[in-house]
Design brief:
Layout: E1 26-29, E2 34-38, E3 41-45, E4 51-56, H1 57-61, E5 71-78, E6 85-94, E7 105-113, E8 126-132, E9 143-152, E10 156-165, E11 172-181, H2 182-185, E12 197-200, E13 215-216, E14 233-238, E15 243-252, E16 260-271, H3 286-295, H4 321-326, E17 333-339, E18 345-349
Antiparallel strand pairs: 1-2, 2-3, 3-4, 5-6, 6-7, 7-8, 9-10, 10-11, 11-12, 13-14, 14-15, 15-16, 17-18
The structure holds calcium ion.
Length: 351
Amino acid sequence: MPTVFAGLDRPSAANNGFVFSPPDTTLGKSPNRVLEGANSALRLSTTVGAILDTKDLNTFFGASTTNGLLFDPKVYFDRLGPNPRFYVVALQRIGIDDTTSTNDVSRIWVAVSRSGDPASLASTNWCRYNIDGRRNVGTLNSSWADYPEIGVGSDSFLFATNQFRFTDSNFFTFSVVRVWNKTIASDNAASCPSIPRFRFQPSPTLGHFSTFTLQPAQQYTAPSSFPGTANPAYLVSTTRGTGNAYHVWRVRNVASGSPTMEGLTLTGRSYGIPPPSPQPGNSIFIERAIIECSRYPGSVTRWSGSSRPVATSRREQRTSRAQCAEGEREPEFLWGSERDLIGDAVVGLRR
Ligand SMILES: [Ca+2]
């Protein structure tokens, strides 16, 4: 029988009094710990569910709320290598959707546990970092980092983001892949190291949706090296929406200090965005509700608590055109509407 225990609920995942939706739950398990992330908190438990620590993301990272509440946490436990560690990534941003650039902030917060079984979420048990998530600063396409995806190779820790314009927060600009030297990052029991970092932008083309939401592989065993390639790490992606192209990316030679990234495209069976999941015990399709809401009426309006129209492009990867076609009717508010930190609407709809 699997071990089952309750995770964070919405009140316990609140961050400085703000309750988020959707939760974006993410989980990692080490030999003796379970680390759950949600919008917008972390909880460390034993593997049978005894709660060891709960902290909101800003407190965990030591991030001032001046630049916003942290969101989109991703948690991963890396078992590959001599120093198994938990990795946490979360985002922060302010200054979007205005014409002022001086208020633009995008930070990417990263934490690495200092053992495989950390005692708590206190800063003594973690090495914490934060880097500038902005790209193309000073141009029309100055952007903030969204939607992190994380993974590892033998000697690399990778996280990829989709970048969106500050001035138009739904306008996708580029995907960016950041690669850190994991061998150095994880050798942190005695002290928190300075970590060699590298950054790649796989496409030079603005708004290139064939390079969108790159997912680093989460390697449990070491991918093979071969002549010219030491310790490769891989990422995969599809073209946003419906298609039959599968993109495979490789980062290699991280330890050399001069890694490279390449990609190729394979053709396979066609795909679309998966349907939403029914919620146990009722007939509410929460993701469908968001989908229908985001797509109604047509393709450019998202319903929100303040009826603020928001273009759908940024969240469209979570949407399905087929589902949206079903949504061409007046939305019915089931349990009201809420807005999360970054202004997205979450609206309950009855089917
Ligand atoms: Ca701004």
